[in-house]
TrEMBL record:
Protein name: SGNH/GDSL hydrolase family protein
Pfam families: Lipase_GDSL_2
Xref: Gene3D superfamilies: SGNH hydrolase
Cited CDD domains: SEST_like (cd01823)
All copies of domain SGNH hydrolase-type esterase, residue ranges: 10-253
Source organism of this protein record: Kribbella karoonensis
Highest rank taxon of the organism: Bacteria
Keyword vocabulary terms for this entry: Hydrolase
GO MF terms, alphabetically ordered: hydrolase activity
InterPro entries, alphabetized: SEST-like (IPR037460), SGNH_hydro (IPR013830), SGNH_hydro_sf (IPR036514)
Signal sequence region: none
C-alpha cells in the first residue's frame, strides 16, 4: 500500500477527469472533485496532483499541450509514489464515434419525413470499425506513457486503469441506446480492442492493470445499476447530463478497484 502523505499524480482523459460529476473543480478540464483520483486520495490520505483533462489523447500526456495545459507527464516528479493512467479512447474516437452515431440516428428519425433515403444518408456518416493498426498504435502509445512516467518517477507504482464498459449484456439496441443491431456490436468491439490495448501495454511496460472494463460489464448502460451514463441531447444546464461517461457510482467503483489493487 502507498504510504499516507505520498504524492499521487493522476493522468488521463475524461474517463479519469469525470465531467458532469459534481463538484467540477476545473471547468476547462471537466475535472470533478469526486473522480476516482480524488476518492482514492481521500481514502488513502495521499497528496493528489490531478492533471486529467477531458478530450486528452495519449499525445497530450506525452508531449503535446492541451489548451493552456502542458503535457500531463510534466506533473511527474522523482518523489511521486503513485501514478494512474486512463487514456487512449480519444485516440480511437471511441466515445466520439458512439456519440456521433447516436446523434445522427436520433436526428434521422424525424428526417424520415423527408424520405428514407435522406435518413439513411444521415446515418451513414459514421464509421464504427477500426483496423488492427489503430489498436496497436494505442498499445504503443500507452507503453510509451508508462516508460516515460517511469523515467520521471522511478520509484512510483504505475497503474493503467482502463475504461468502464458502456456496452454490456443488458444493453439493448434502439431501446437503451439509439444504435441499431448492426451498429451496437461494433461499439462493443471497439471497447474490447481498447481493453486489449491496455492489457498489452501493461504487460509490455510492467505496469499494474486495473481492468475496470471487465469489472463493469454487468453495470453497463441498460443494467439495473449502471456505472456510466446513457445518451441525451439535452445539455446539463437544461436537465441533461454528459452522455457515455462514468457516473458517480462508476467513479466510486473504479476507486475501489484501485485501492484493492494497491493492497494486493
Amino acid at each position: 500500500m502507498i504510504a499516507s502523505g505520498s504524492r499521487y499524480v493522476a493522468l488521463g482523459s475524461s474517463f479519469a477527469a469525470g465531467p458532469g460529476i459534481s463538484p467540477i473543480v476545473d471547468p476547462p478540464a471537466g475535472r470533478s472533485g469526486n473522480n476516482y483520483a480524488h476518492l482514492v486520495a481521500a481514502e488513502l490520505g495521499l497528496d493528489l496532483v490531478d492533471v486529467s483533462y477531458s478530450g486528452a489523447t495519449t499525445a497530450h500526456l506525452i508531449d503535446t499541450r492541451q489548451d493552456d495545459a502542458p503535457p500531463q507527464l510534466d506533473a511527474l516528479t522523482p518523489d511521486t509514489a503513485l501514478i494512474t493512467i486512463t487514456c487512449g479512447g480519444n485516440d480511437l474516437e471511441y466515445v466520439g464515434t458512439f456519440l456521433r452515431g447516436s446523434f445522427l440516428n436520433t436526428i434521422a428519425k424525424p428526417a424520415t419525413i423527408l424520405g428514407r433515403r435522406v435518413a439513411n444518408r444521415i446515418r451513414a456518416r459514421v464509421s464504427y470499425l477500426k483496423d488492427d493498426a489503430s489498436y496497436q498504435a494505442v498499445t504503443d502509445s500507452l507503453t510509451t506513457v508508462v516508460e516515460r512516467a517511469r523515467e520521471r518517477s522511478p520509484e512510483a507504482r504505475i497503474l493503467l486503469v482502463d475504461y468502464l464498459s458502456l456496452v454490456g449484456p443488458a444493453t439493448r439496441p434502439r431501446l437503451d441506446v439509439p444504435l441499431n443491431e448492426e451498429q451496437l456490436p461494433s461499439i462493443a468491439m471497439m471497447a474490447d480492442g481498447l481493453a486489449a490495448a491496455f492489457a498489452k501495454a501493461a504487460a509490455a511496460a510492467g505496469a499494474d492493470l486495473v481492468a475496470a472494463s471487465a469489472a463493469s460489464r454487468d453495470h453497463a448502460i441498460g443494467s439495473a445499476e449502471p456505472w456510466t451514463t446513457g445518451f441525451t441531447m439535452l445539455p446539463p444546464n437544461l436537465g441533461g447530463f454528459v452522455p457515455y461517461h462514468p457516473n458517480a457510482a462508476g467513479m466510486r467503483a473504479v476507486a475501489d478497484l484501485i485501492v484493492e489493487t494497491l493492497g494486493s
